[in-house]
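Can't paste images in this forum, so I'm doing it all in text. The chain is below; anyone willing to post the predicted structure tokens underneath?
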Amino acid sequence: MSAYEINKLFHAISVNEEVKQRYVENREKVMNEYHLNEQEQRMVQENDFAALTEYGVNGLILMRIKDVHQVPVPEMLKSLKSRES
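Text version of the structure:
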């Protein structure tokens, strides 16, 4: 498996307002358009930033996506630290 499709989707959301709006309105439909598998969709839906990072998703893009998902920085950091143990 590869993080290519997630990175591609998150990049599109970051640079294309139309994709971002469609994603906000129907996240699952847009994830399917980018061919995310069940595991990838779960990581995105659950805002599992630690798993996404380990999977190979670009950290800078994740910072932009946390805003789209309306995830506060402390919550994102908590997710990232959850895998450090």
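The radius of gyration is 12 Å. The longest helix spans residues 4-15.
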